[in-house]
Design goal:
The chain has two domains: 17-102, Carboxypeptidase-like, regulatory domain (Immunoglobulin-like, Sandwich); 105-831, TonB-dependent receptor, beta-barrel domain (Maltoporin, Chain A). Helix content is 6%, strand content 58%. It contains six helices and 45 strands. It has a 22-stranded antiparallel barrel. The longest helix has 19 residues, at 2-20. The two termini are 58 Å apart.
């Protein structure tokens, strides 16, 4: 009996002691899209018992205190995750665990789920926003990844061209609200932050052609962004030499309210200070974005998207030294140009968007979304810059006393550029969108009304004096003079209806999508109807292959830049540009050495009419202001997606493309004068009867590029995933450059191939917060990463445009304007 009592007392004592040494871990388990995961197993490492998460992803488990232990989180289809704890007595640690799917990256970026593949997605690329965060790029963001897919030729801008179109032909949506960029930006150095905050992004869908009827009226591409709807508190903060920012996210306890807020600041001073033109660069760009949702009940949800962005660019140029080994019309190996400036430039661009929507889930199969938005864009350009220049042969003999100087002058001159330009754009939009799921049919429809108000003031002139001779064009002694005011009010009505129909049998799965879209605007007074159809076939083969087709009509009503001619006047009689497009392709998914691979190939053809010709100078698109051309584009694109190592996506994109245009009235006349010189004229009234008429015919469009190659690569040490490398490589073959106001020399210059490589190295400074002691000053951070990036690894000074210079004999020479050299960047990112 005495022994039994002793045993009972001992057990009681041990039990009481164990209770005093207890602690707790609680929290939520989410997937990569911030959705709660139910029935996730949570166990203590080395034990077989534990708990499972409820329908909200919540769990709470009792653990031993003052003892190092690990919790194991496991769920079918997701990678197992372990987290280490050391807790004090009675301490409760609250955490958020995010599980990653097996081969998660390819699921998101490449393959998608079965439902996405059944719904026809010709031309779709799904992009992982996490890759946009880690991408070593001077512009960063989602647009940096898109440029790897479609190509680019300017690392200072987030603009991109798709399948022969210019940037104005691309649609961009954030949570179904259309987004616009500033219009007066002339060069990439004036551009601020990219449109999309990748830290706030949940899904990125990019359509590079043949897109559906539900998207708007442009001719090239659609970038469809969805911001997150968080269910737990979190955030991030980052600091680099180029950009700084933070974001916060979370939801109320009852999960009726969720919020997402991001603040960013960017300055390209370090990039611009290395350019050929020396001086004081003061660029600054800031934005504030917010996305808030409020769930009224099971059927109604309210959403608000807000965006305020401001960019300022001040420039006080001092001097520039440029060198060219190739110029027209002769070849000189050491041609140099020295410019000495006076004056300054001050530009400002402010945009803001407020969008409100009410989502009505009528029942499980019917959904309506009511939307209203207001967008405003205020821009101003103010510059008065003069430059005195001297050009000729430059001495590159470093043993010479004249090393680096121009020793054989070919020309000298003086020029002055002046502008006081203002642009104010307001866009009001009201939209109703809906969907009905009827099993084999998935019907989508929508209608919108839009009011656009544009006020524009253009006052700009240019003076040129070469070798003592004033070069006159108009307005006295000014080479170029623009002075216009415009005020426009445009109403636009659009709508669509489309149906996804699914046919399945033992031999194949077929999905057919047919839709029709209409648009009418009060400016061109055109009522245009655009039928579009897509089809996908997934044969019941051993290999996972999907065959896709798309065809449709696409139109693009003029907005602002298309209306303005070279002389600054507006042509309000401009019609919509139109095209029909054909696309055919296939997707092939397979595994090799237990790694997922995907190959996508698409061939396309675009025929365009009522085209408004344009020139591109840096990032500035200058239209002719008339529907006086027809054009075409055709090509083939192939992309290979894979993982060199698990959970690190990589892809290779190769594109071949040709695009041509034929401008009406682009002929010119040539004859010889009394001195035997060849004279060129565009007017038949000014030439002799025996003059020769020359037809220009089909020419390369400004965006014509035969070969485009993009590579995005991620890797990490096989022994340690905490050390990673990211590489992106771009190659684009040459592009044409048009001499302004010249018919004879359209396509007269060639921009050299664009070659660019950026690399970044990342190291994990602090690991998951649950691996640290509870009293650590960094206990609230999930992780902290440090990155070292090298931009333009091969130090290639790519050409973006040309500066035209006249010598003493009035002969025109071209001097290339170069982009940035090799530069480095440091970045620290912390997430909590």
């Amino acid at each position: 009996m005495r022994s039994f009592i002793t045993l009972v007392l001992s057990l009681f004592f041990l039990s009481a002691t164990a209770q005093k040494k207890a602690a707790f871990v609680s929290g939520k388990v989410l997937d990569e899209n911030e959705n709660p995961l139910a029935k996730v197993s949570v166990t203590i490492l080395g034990k077989t018992t534990g708990v499972i998460t409820n329908d909200s992803g919540y769990f709470k488990i009792k653990v031993a205190a003052e003892k190092t232990l690990a919790l194991v989180f496991s769920y079918s289809g997701f990678s197992e995750t372990k987290q280490i704890f050391y807790l004090s007595e009675n301490e409760e640690e609250k955490i958020t665990v995010r599980l990653e799917r097996n081969s998660k990256v390819l699921d998101e970026v490449v393959v998608g789920d079965d439902r996405e593949r059944e719904r026809v997605e010709t031309g779709l690329t799904k992009i992982n926003p996490k890759s946009a965060i880690t991408l070593p790029s001077t512009i960063g963001g989602v647009e940096g990844l898109i440029k790897i897919l479609v190509g680019g030729n300017n690392e200072l801008t987030s603009q991109y061209n798709v399948r022969g179109g210019n940037y104005d032909e691309n649609l961009i949506y954030i949570n179904d609200f259309e987004i616009f960029r500033p219009y007066l930006v002339r060069s990439g150095q004036q551009e601020g932050l990219s449109l999309i905050n990748p830290e706030m992004t949940r899904n990125v869908n990019f359509y590079n052609g043949g897109f559906q009827s539900k998207y708007g009226d442009k001719m090239s591409s659609v970038l469809d962004i969805q911001y997150k709807k968080p269910r737990a508190f979190g955030g991030s903060v980052y600091v680099s030499l180029l950009e700084q920012g933070f974001h916060l996210e979370g939801s109320a306890k009852n999960e009726k309210v969720s919020y997402l807020i991001g603040v960013r600041n960017k300055s390209n001073r370090n990039l611009l200070s290395s350019q050929e033109t020396q001086g004081s660069y003061i660029p600054s760009s800031n934005d504030l974005q917010a996305f808030v949702t409020y769930k009224l009940n099971d059927k109604w949800q309210l959403e608000m998207l807000a965006n305020y962005s401001t960019s300022k660019f001040s420039f006080f140029p001092e001097s520039a030294q440029k060198t060219s080994s190739v110029f027209s019309p002769l070849f000189t190996a050491n041609l140099g140009l020295d410019i000495y400036f006076e004056g300054q430039e001050k530009d400002g661009y402010t945009t803001n968007l407020i969008g409100l929507s009410a989502v009505n889930q009528i029942n499980k199969k019917t959904k309506l979304k009511w939307m209203v938005s207001h967008f405003q864009n205020k821009e101003n350009e103010n510059f008065d810059i003069a430059g005195a220049y001297l050009f000729g042969d430059r001495d590159f003999d470093n043993s010479s006393s004249s090393f680096g100087q121009i020793v054989n002058p070919l020309g000298a001159g003086y020029y002055q550029n002046y502008a006081r330009n203002e642009l104010n754009i307001e866009v009001w939009n009201g939209t109703l969108k809906g969907s009905i799921d009827k099993g084999k049919h998935f019907i989508q429809f929508g209608n919108s009304i839009e009011q656009t108000n544009i006020k524009d003031k253009l006052y700009e002139w240019e003076y040129q004096d070469s070798a003592g001779y004033s070069l006159q064009l108009n307005s006295g002694k000014l080479y170029n003079f623009l002075n216009t005011n415009a005020s426009l009010s445009i109403q636009k009505y659009t709508g669509y209806v489309q149906d996804n129909i699914s046919f399945k049998n033992d031999k194949r799965d077929i999905t057919l999508q047919g839709g029709i879209r209409y648009n009418y605007n009060s400016l061109s007074k055109e009522f245009l109807v655009s039928p579009r159809v897509q089809a996908s076939i997934k044969p019941n083969w051993k290999k996972d292959v999907v065959i896709k087709f798309a065809a449709g009509l696409y139109s693009q009503p003029p907005f602002y830049r298309e209306l303005r001619k070279y002389d600054g006047t507006l042509n309000i009689d401009v019609k919509s540009q139109k095209s029909y497009q054909l696309v055919a392709g296939m997707d092939y998914n397979f595994k090799s050495k237990n790694r997922p691979f995907r190959i996508t190939t698409e061939a396309y053809y675009k025929s365009m009419w009522d085209v408004i010709p344009y020139d591109i100078d840096n990032v500035r698109v200058r239209y002719f202001g008339n529907n006086n051309a027809k054009a075409y584009a055709y090509g083939i694109e192939t992309r290979l997606y894979s993982e060199l190592v698990k959970d690190a996506e990589s892809w290779l994109s190769i594109g071949l493309m040709r695009t041509r245009e034929n401008i009406e009235g682009d002929h010119y006349y040539q004859y010889k004068n009394a001195a035997g010189e060849t004279i060129t004229s565009r007017s038949q009234d000014q030439v002799p009867v025996d003059s020769v008429r020359n037809e220009v015919g089909w020419l390369r469009r400004p965006s014509d590029r035969l070969i485009t190659i993009g590579l995005f690569l991620q890797d990490y040490l096989s022994t340690n995933k905490n050390f990673r490398v990211h590489l992106n490589l771009l190659y684009g073959s040459n592009m044409p450059y048009n001499i302004p106001n010249s018919v004879k020399y359209r396509n007269g210059l060639i921009i050299e191939p664009y070659i660019r490589a950026d690399i970044g190295f990342s190291a994990l400074l602090l690991s998951e917060k649950n691996k640290r002691r509870s009293h650590s000053p960094f206990k609230n951070f999930d992780n902290i990463w440090a990155s070292f990036e090298v931009f333009n690894l091969i130090d290639r000074r790519n050409t973006i445009s040309y500066q035209l210079i006249k010598d003493f004999s009035n002969t025109v020479y071209s001097i290339p304007n170069r982009l940035t050299p090799r530069l480095v960047n440091f970045k620290i990112v912390g997430r909590f």
